[in-house]
Amino acid sequence: MTQTEFALLSQGIETLCKNDSDIDSLITPRSEEINQTLDRYIKEIELFNKAYGLVGTDSAEELVIKHILDSIAPLGIISRLLKMLNTTNDTGTTFQIADAGSGAGLPGIPLAITLPQCNFSLIERMGRRAGFLCGTKAVLSLTNITVEESELEKIAHNKFDLVTFRAFKPIEKKLLKTLFNICKEGGIIAAYKGKTEKIKEEMSFLERTKWEVIPYSVPFLNEERHMLIIKN
Questions:
Q1: Would you write out the chain's pLDDT as a tens digit for each of its 232 residues?
Q2: Strands 96-100 and 119-123: what pairing?
């Protein structure tokens, strides 16, 4: 990543911190460490992307904006969800978070970098991509990450406080059942999504399940972005 792209990343993170006090409290005290770790992560993606097909872009600028900053942009929403879970289940245990269909580690790795107090399981069924995740975990020295090379359906039930995914697949009844299975009782599914209209269409089959849509903004990206929240 060039100095220009690094500046883009730094400016984007600075903007997120200015716009959300919860993001600011998580990132600003560790801003240099976080920026440097994300820089190394981006370099790992760039190194292996062509061989492994990790992300659908060859542009470093697009990688920074549409993948890294997009993964971090709803950090404040996720932080507030975890605080809410803490009030309902005050056991003092570390939160367990799953990144379903992790691929290149998005959003799991950027979230793990910014939320070191949480444990993350990166669930990826493809061997080459799981290998990339294991290698990246070692390069970045991320001790709060576990890589699970597995089908989502084979993951242990009642394991996670929060399950998130990005660019995984549209939600339908079978997938939702699988996601609920790996969630703890009272857990939350937090999906990265785009336009409100498409979300409503996708969720039209859910008549009895509680869900809500929370908008978030990605610096330098003029696209509609939302986090879809579904409670178990």
A1: 688 889 999 999 999 999 999 999 999 999 999 999 999 999 999 999 999 999 988 789 999 999 999 999 999 999 999 999 875 555 556 899 999 999 999 999 999 999 999 999 999 999 999 999 999 999 999 999 999 999 999 999 999 999 999 977 788 888 999 999 999 999 999 999 999 999 988 888 776 678 899 999 999 999 999 999 998 7
A2: parallel
3-class DSSP assignment, residue 227: strand
Q: For residue 47, give both structure tokens.
A: 């190194």
CA distances from 118 to 33, 87, 145 (A): 17, 16, 9
Residue 71 token pair: 């993964």
74, two tokens: 């709803």
117 CB-contact burial (10 Å; exposed 0-12 / middle 13-18 / buried 19+):
exposed
Q: Please report, in angstroms and rounded to a whole number, the separation of the first and last CA atoms in the chain.
A: 40
Beta-strand ranges (E) seen in the chain are: 96-100, 119-123, 145-148, 160-166, 183-193, 211-216, 225-231
| CA-closest candidate to residue 221, choices 97, 73, 21 | 73
Residue identified by tokens 């370099």 is 43
Give the pair of three-digit tokens for residue 52: 């492994």
Q: Measuring CA to CA, how many Å separate 66 from each of 31, 114, 185, 209, 219? A: 20, 18, 32, 30, 9
